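Supplementary Text 2. Reproducibility record for the structural model of the 309-residue chain.

All settings were left at their defaults, and a single model was retained for analysis rather than an ensemble. We include the record here because the model underlies the residue-level annotations in Supplementary Table 4.
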Amino acid sequence: MYLQNKPRITNLWSKVVGGENEKWLTRVTVESTGPYKFTLKEVSGGFSLECSGVEINMPEGRLEVNDGLLRDISIERAGNDTARVELFLDHPAECAYVLYNDFPCRLVLNLNRDFIKGLLSGKRIVVDPGHGGKNLGGRGQVSLLEKDVVIPIANNLERNLKKAGAEVLLTRRTDKDVPLDGRAALATNANADAFISIHTNASADRSDVGAATLYSPHDNGSRELAVYIQKEIIKKLRVKDRGITIQQGLGCVSKEIPAVEVEVVTITNIVEEVFLRGLTIQERAAEGITNGLIKYFACGGPGAKGDTK
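Retained model, structure tokens:
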């Protein structure tokens, strides 16, 4: 039973704010019915917020985030009238807080994303929305076309990468035919650091589902990039993991440029076609690809050793 005068933590969430011309942050908000004493300290792999004189009035446990910096948040009782909130990070960050003693009371933890900007700043990424014009790509059972759905995913990816300081070039922004060698030439002429082609899977078997990432036969980091992107796509979309494999068609891209083709889901499966029509998957697919690129460059780019398990 809660005492009337004892503050209670009632909500906990995070979001990414800012970017490009603003400070780029992961913002974690701890909401409560009133103020309480707390200490914030850096620990191995993240930060720990120790709260005293407070109860928890929300589900305890671990919340998965995966925003490229913040992997998870957890909240749990740490003793009588005490609670612990932990932030688990994929990369180093500084953390500052602001306390708002309104009702509800909000303790806001701001994690800077400068480390990620350092990884991607100045990187030149070519984003290739597959197909276009008369080249329709796959077609869903309710008429959704691959050439159309990859455009919003590409736009979201461009926005994410620009926030991280990368230079982004799109092979097409409208519904037009772009020859494969023209797409490859854009990457070569730009001396790109990565080539990301966005597609969906199509199958004669309408029960087939899931996402896959294909990589250039030249490799030069392409396989490692595929490993990281595939892992992050599956985390974001929660679909069947179809794995990674070689895509011979990517051989037209310069062997110096890591190149992958991301099949975000299977458009010929009616459930995943409906999924593809929503803004959520279009945003999450782009987030997964972004997070994969972050992990790739954090681990050394073309020299990266991806998790092959």
